[in-house]
Description:
Elements: H1 10-16, E1 22-23, E2 26-27, E3 41-42, E4 49-53, H2 63-75, E5 83-87, H3 96-103, E6 107-111, E7 130-132, E8 135-140, H4 150-163
Parallel strand pairs: 4-5, 4-6, 6-8
Antiparallel strand pairs: 1-2, 3-5, 7-8
Amino acid sequence: MSIDQIQLPGYLCRQMFAKSLLDKGKPVGDASPTEKIKLTALGANERNILFLVNDPQHKFLAETEMKLLSDLLNACKISMEDIVLVNYDQNRGVNYRDLTNQFQSKKVLIFGVAAADLELPFTIPFFQIQKYQEQTYLIGPSLSDFTNNVGLKKELWNCLKKIFLI
Protein backbone atom coordinates (compact mmCIF):
# COMPACT_ATOMS: atom_id res chain seq x y z
CA MET A 1 0.00 0.00 0.00
CA SER A 2 1.35 3.41 -0.89
CA ILE A 3 1.17 6.44 1.35
CA ASP A 4 -1.35 7.95 -1.08
CA GLN A 5 -3.88 5.26 -0.17
CA ILE A 6 -3.84 5.76 3.61
CA GLN A 7 -7.13 7.13 4.92
CA LEU A 8 -7.26 8.92 8.25
CA PRO A 9 -10.42 9.04 10.37
CA GLY A 10 -12.14 12.42 10.65
CA TYR A 11 -11.33 13.02 14.33
CA LEU A 12 -7.63 12.47 13.67
CA CYS A 13 -7.64 14.88 10.72
CA ARG A 14 -9.31 17.54 12.90
CA GLN A 15 -6.64 17.10 15.57
CA MET A 16 -3.70 17.07 13.18
CA PHE A 17 -4.88 19.87 10.91
CA ALA A 18 -7.09 21.99 13.19
CA LYS A 19 -5.30 25.19 12.32
CA SER A 20 -4.47 24.48 8.70
CA LEU A 21 -7.69 23.14 7.18
CA LEU A 22 -9.92 26.01 6.16
CA ASP A 23 -13.65 26.30 5.73
CA LYS A 24 -14.72 29.76 4.56
CA GLY A 25 -11.61 31.24 6.14
CA LYS A 26 -12.10 29.67 9.58
CA PRO A 27 -10.31 26.68 11.11
CA VAL A 28 -12.17 23.39 10.98
CA GLY A 29 -13.03 21.83 14.31
CA ASP A 30 -13.85 23.30 17.67
CA ALA A 31 -13.81 26.93 18.63
CA SER A 32 -10.60 27.84 20.38
CA PRO A 33 -10.91 28.55 24.13
CA THR A 34 -10.61 32.27 23.43
CA GLU A 35 -13.09 32.24 20.52
CA LYS A 36 -16.67 32.33 21.78
CA ILE A 37 -19.33 31.03 19.47
CA LYS A 38 -22.82 32.49 19.46
CA LEU A 39 -25.15 30.27 21.50
CA THR A 40 -28.76 30.84 22.50
CA ALA A 41 -28.82 30.49 26.29
CA LEU A 42 -30.85 31.48 29.32
CA GLY A 43 -29.49 32.21 32.81
CA ALA A 44 -26.61 34.13 34.37
CA ASN A 45 -24.30 31.11 34.89
CA GLU A 46 -22.90 32.46 38.15
CA ARG A 47 -21.98 28.98 39.41
CA ASN A 48 -20.91 27.52 36.04
CA ILE A 49 -23.65 24.91 35.89
CA LEU A 50 -24.85 23.91 32.43
CA PHE A 51 -28.28 22.39 31.86
CA LEU A 52 -28.44 21.10 28.29
CA VAL A 53 -31.89 20.08 27.05
CA ASN A 54 -33.33 19.10 23.69
CA ASP A 55 -36.73 20.54 22.81
CA PRO A 56 -37.37 20.98 19.09
CA GLN A 57 -40.71 22.72 19.65
CA HIS A 58 -39.62 25.54 21.97
CA LYS A 59 -36.82 28.07 22.22
CA PHE A 60 -35.85 26.66 25.62
CA LEU A 61 -38.51 24.46 27.24
CA ALA A 62 -42.25 23.97 27.34
CA GLU A 63 -44.04 25.46 30.34
CA THR A 64 -44.40 22.14 32.20
CA GLU A 65 -40.71 21.28 31.74
CA MET A 66 -39.68 24.80 32.76
CA LYS A 67 -41.72 24.40 35.97
CA LEU A 68 -40.04 21.04 36.61
CA LEU A 69 -36.63 22.64 36.10
CA SER A 70 -37.55 25.51 38.41
CA ASP A 71 -38.69 23.05 41.10
CA LEU A 72 -35.45 21.07 40.74
CA LEU A 73 -33.36 24.22 41.04
CA ASN A 74 -35.27 25.33 44.14
CA ALA A 75 -34.82 21.91 45.74
CA CYS A 76 -31.07 22.13 45.06
CA LYS A 77 -30.98 25.67 46.51
CA ILE A 78 -29.88 27.21 43.23
CA SER A 79 -31.63 29.52 40.78
CA MET A 80 -31.58 30.53 37.11
CA GLU A 81 -28.91 33.05 38.11
CA ASP A 82 -26.63 30.15 39.01
CA ILE A 83 -27.08 28.10 35.84
CA VAL A 84 -27.16 28.44 32.08
CA LEU A 85 -29.88 26.65 30.13
CA VAL A 86 -29.11 25.70 26.53
CA ASN A 87 -31.48 24.01 24.11
CA TYR A 88 -29.42 21.72 21.88
CA ASP A 89 -32.03 21.90 19.14
CA GLN A 90 -31.54 25.69 18.91
CA ASN A 91 -27.73 25.28 18.82
CA ARG A 92 -27.23 22.32 16.47
CA GLY A 93 -23.68 21.33 15.75
CA VAL A 94 -22.16 22.35 19.08
CA ASN A 95 -20.15 19.79 20.99
CA TYR A 96 -19.16 19.46 24.63
CA ARG A 97 -15.93 21.44 24.08
CA ASP A 98 -17.81 24.37 22.55
CA LEU A 99 -20.24 24.40 25.46
CA THR A 100 -17.68 24.08 28.22
CA ASN A 101 -15.37 26.65 26.61
CA GLN A 102 -18.25 29.10 26.29
CA PHE A 103 -19.66 28.65 29.79
CA GLN A 104 -16.66 27.33 31.78
CA SER A 105 -18.98 24.63 33.12
CA LYS A 106 -18.03 22.65 36.21
CA LYS A 107 -21.28 20.68 36.30
CA VAL A 108 -22.97 19.57 33.08
CA LEU A 109 -26.47 18.08 33.25
CA ILE A 110 -27.69 16.74 29.91
CA PHE A 111 -31.31 15.83 29.22
CA GLY A 112 -32.47 14.28 25.96
CA VAL A 113 -29.13 14.57 24.14
CA ALA A 114 -26.87 11.59 23.50
CA ALA A 115 -23.21 11.73 24.50
CA ALA A 116 -22.25 10.89 20.91
CA ASP A 117 -24.16 13.95 19.61
CA LEU A 118 -21.94 16.14 21.78
CA GLU A 119 -18.81 14.23 20.73
CA LEU A 120 -18.11 13.23 24.32
CA PRO A 121 -15.32 10.64 24.43
CA PHE A 122 -17.43 8.36 26.63
CA THR A 123 -20.95 7.05 26.96
CA ILE A 124 -22.67 6.50 30.27
CA PRO A 125 -26.07 5.16 31.20
CA PHE A 126 -28.76 7.52 32.45
CA PHE A 127 -28.24 8.76 36.00
CA GLN A 128 -24.61 7.72 36.30
CA ILE A 129 -22.46 10.58 37.53
CA GLN A 130 -19.25 10.83 35.52
CA LYS A 131 -16.19 12.96 36.26
CA TYR A 132 -14.21 14.07 33.22
CA GLN A 133 -11.61 16.85 32.91
CA GLU A 134 -12.50 18.47 36.24
CA GLN A 135 -16.17 18.47 35.31
CA THR A 136 -19.11 16.44 36.55
CA TYR A 137 -21.48 15.02 33.93
CA LEU A 138 -24.95 13.57 34.29
CA ILE A 139 -27.03 12.34 31.36
CA GLY A 140 -30.74 11.65 31.60
CA PRO A 141 -33.82 11.31 29.44
CA SER A 142 -35.65 14.33 28.10
CA LEU A 143 -37.25 16.52 30.77
CA SER A 144 -40.66 15.79 29.23
CA ASP A 145 -40.19 12.14 30.29
CA PHE A 146 -40.08 13.24 33.94
CA THR A 147 -43.41 15.08 34.09
CA ASN A 148 -45.59 12.10 35.11
CA ASN A 149 -42.92 9.60 36.14
CA VAL A 150 -42.22 9.52 39.87
CA GLY A 151 -39.56 6.79 39.47
CA LEU A 152 -37.48 8.92 37.09
CA LYS A 153 -37.83 11.93 39.38
CA LYS A 154 -36.53 9.89 42.32
CA GLU A 155 -33.52 8.67 40.35
CA LEU A 156 -32.74 12.21 39.24
CA TRP A 157 -33.17 13.58 42.74
CA ASN A 158 -30.73 11.00 44.15
CA CYS A 159 -28.13 12.11 41.59
CA LEU A 160 -28.73 15.82 42.20
CA LYS A 161 -28.20 15.29 45.95
CA LYS A 162 -24.75 13.85 45.19
CA ILE A 163 -23.82 16.49 42.62
CA PHE A 164 -24.93 19.47 44.70
CA LEU A 165 -24.00 17.91 48.08
CA ILE A 166 -27.49 18.20 49.52
